[in-house]
Design goal:
The protein has 1163 residues and is mainly alpha-helical. 61% of the residues lie in helices and 1% in strands. Strands 1-2 form a two-stranded antiparallel ribbon. Helix 52 crosses helix 54. The longest helix has 23 residues, at 369-391. The radius of gyration is 40 Å and the shape is elongated.
Length: 1163
Amino acid sequence: MAPPKTRTPAAEKLKFSDKLVKGHSTDALQEELAEMDQERVDTKSLSNVRKELIQTSLLLHKDKGVKAYVACCLADLLRLYAPDAPYTAHELRDIFQFFLRQLTTGLKNQDAPYYAETFYLLESLASIKSVVLVCDLPQADELMTEIFRGFFDLIGADLPKNVELYMTDVLVALIDEASTLPQELLDVLLAQFMRKQTYFTDIILQSDDEEEMERIETAHELVKALNRDCPALLLNVVPQLEEELKVDRLQMRTLATQVLGEMFGEVKNGVELSRKYHGAWQAWIHRKSDKAAGVRLAFVEATGPVIANHAELRPEVEDALQAKLLDPDEKVRAAACRVYAQMDYETVLHNVTVQQLEEVASRASDKKHLVRLEAFHCLGKLFGLAYPDIERNDATAVEKFAWIPSAIFQTAAKSADLKSEAEETVFKYILPVPAKGDDEAGWTQRLISVAASLDDRAMHNLLVMTNIKISRPSLHEKFIDFCEQNNGGVIDKHEEEVVRALRRVIQAIAGTFVDSSKVSEDLRAFASMNEVRLYKAFRSCIDPKSDLKALAKSQSEFLRRVEQTLPSSLNTMTQVLRRASPWILNQSSVPTLVKCLQKADSHSEHARRADRARMLLSYISKYCPVMHSAHATELSKALGETKNHSLVETALQALSAAVRTDSSLFPSDKRTVDRIAKFVMEDNPRLAKFAARALAHSGTRVDLCMTVFDRVVQSLPSATGGSLVSHLAAIAEFAQSIQRVFETRSQVITTHLVQLLMREAESEENDDNSPDWVDENQLDYITRAKLLSIKVFRNRCLYYVEPRADTTSAHEVLAPVLKMLWTILENGGATTPDSTDKAPVKAHLRLQASVALLKLSQNDLYCKIITANLPVLAVVVQDPCFHVRYAFLGKLIKYLQARKLDPRFNAVLFLTAHDPERDIRDKARIYVQVISHRSPEIKSSNFELVFVRVLHLLAHHPDFSNDAEGLKDMAKYVEFFTNLVASSDNISLLYHLASKLKTVQDAEDDPFTENLHVISELAQYIIKAYAQSQSWPLPTFPGKVKLPVDIFKRHESAEGATAAVKRTYIGQDVLAELNGVGKAWKSPNPKADLDKSSRKRKDTGAKSTSDVRSKYGIRRRRKTAESDTSGDESESDQDTGGAYRGVKSKRSNAEEAGETPLRRSNR
């Protein structure tokens, strides 16, 4: 049923019907007119009184009360009839002359009988601005002059402040409305200023009265009005304003700064004023450095019109404004950003430099929230205005604004609060969702355009912001599920479990925000509402199958409904929705992205856009392939455009990803199927991999898979170059996706791959000038084949822990593979210790082996075996090659974040403390902070209880030494941990864990047990110092914690345990040299270590006796002398302060000859 129509309120009619004979009843009429609403009044009902009120007998009545009420009635009629006047010009002249007589006689004495009515008349003229009708009357100049003269004559009387303000408003309104001011009026104004030429000076120097300050503000308003129309009158006033800029009184300096700024910004005479009063101009410019923040703020706020209107004054003001972006006061910095945002687009386009805008962008990382908001708003608004010009490839707009999205996305990755603010800016200005969702092509084209302007790091951050790379079901899907189960608190069954699950998911979502307590509160309030419509709208928003139109509609409905029912939570739910829904990239984007690839080729000017379109499609394929489901037919057709290699490869990747989610999407026409089968045999490794994936998940086409697979295996022995790499890419995919087919030829394949891994790379001889890393596509074919061989072995091992595996045991398959992987790490990236492969080859093999170990560790069975030698794997994060460290850390964090790895692997993150590259340290730091912020339980299981494993890694570290220098280096790891994890709530737990290590032995006995006890004492010392520096108490931990039995064991006797606890491992002389550790963590200073020679590591002489180690090829790290290094430290070392000797930054050009990647020194 249609909603009832809203009725328009009836017009309000005048009820007064008496005759205004001899002025009777004027008070009653005025009372009714004053109450009438201008929007609703029926002006026809006012006709009679309108005519009666202008009778001469009333305007000249001898009774003052009658005239007072008549004046108020006339003022109300002008208000009610506005904007049209209900009288002729002659009648209006008589009315305003009557008003003037009433005002000049009735305002002199506040105790007069009808003072209130006279004030009502003045207030109406000032607020309604009906006085401007005077300017349109015949002989208006005379009447205006009379008004000014009459008002100025009143100035001598002791008038209340509000009366003076209203009088000023009336005069300013007349000056603003008049096209020109008559000479007679100018003479009146000039006489007024000459009569009181000491007015400003006397007030400036003598008055501290707050009441007098309002008089001063009134006078300054009049000065601004006069400056617009008759600046010649200000001959003696501007110098007085200049003096105001120099007085001690803050209010006066602020007011003068505001007034002069507005005067200099006037379009008509701002430049002339600055020339004529150059001293005042310079004094005003110098207010940029005023000691008072309020004055500097007033200066900044006044600069916008000067920059916009006066090219001659612009350079000096621009320099001052740019400097204020770095002002010590946050309000001034925020105002400086706001000035740029308030400028019109053309002004910024032609008059503001890129350098100035980059300074604004730097404020987006400001420590203060207010400044960041203004900076983000400015950048986003300017880009939004410039986008049409950027899309038209306007050179000026591209140069000046196209970089803005890149700056915003880079800033978003710096911290959680910056991420929220950047998301809001992107949502509002950079990539807004169309209101009706009806412009899918334009929306996607804008995404492509923005992506094309981004550098690689910003592009990565954009992809993260798409919300595509999330596990399903997501936290937000679980949240809605638990909300429905919670049923507003009325739970049918399993009440405790439902309440606990809802609480946990709320904590997890809130933990991703800065103000987690507010977010938790709002999410609980949302759940308590139990609104089915909201649940449905939210699900539609976060559904990856929703198209743009459905997303826009559901989003609008959800936020509108939240605003109506839970307005206090609107901001929170808006942010949560942005974190959950695919509002940047969704299934509606796919057709436009494909078309972008179809139109571009290697010679096209749109090559950059095409590359970004390919990247976006690939990202969907990898992390949310269900978005491709609706476009399987289009993707199949794209496979026929064989001349466009990028399109075919991307379409095949998308199609294979879609088929993996739904086998029914596999093409049914024979031509496309044959084409896919043919791709498996081609020399393009990516085509071969994606084609094999599509075939492997095609459902019932097992015979076709077997035929293609046999063909690949048969040609493997004779394959060389690109064919070899492509065949192995296909085999690796078959091993992962359809293992029963792979196992039919597994013996032949593994034999061939083992022989392949023993071969030397096809490359030139090694030399000292070779880089330590190249992209994988620059490697020789043999090396690329080796990398794929490791993948094949890894995938086969993973198959044997699947429930369906029923052949050879997982242990028998895993043992030789692990032995091979540990051997590669032991040999620095080679299968043999005497390999002559170049540094990039070894680096890639080290990375592939370590990532394979991480991948295998995702299985519980394999994890127990691999973590027995975790110290060997952990130090890959300290590899000499930056790219290995960075990629390994990225994979580690990815798997940890997805909860695919045991929490014990979190210990590896803290070995980045000494890394010479800020990128790596920050990557680990941000991950720890974000995860710690989610909930106390998550923080405890992932970091607090892992502290003992961190200390265990340090005890096994190849650079461990118990002398002062060595312990200083070990201390940095502990300090890194405490700075990220320690709090007043858990400091006693961390101290308890550190102290308990002296009560146990290392599982591998000496020398690691003594190392462990040394590290225990060092950690206790650091925790005590850190607690003291933070003024935290350090009470005894009341609970009990079990230490992990896989790395620790009990002492053989109680006496041994007692002796270990009582023994002091770190002497006072060493502690004296450690003075200062435990405070706020800083990177070490590399300059102190430049001249230190490498220290030879101690050979522990211990040998592993573990059967597990022997079986799986786990060997103890060899303690060899470190090769000496010489030359200057890298630029990165100087920036970050500290590095491992031998650990290369990403800017280093070579690796020392013979350097083994697991051999590092801290100094």
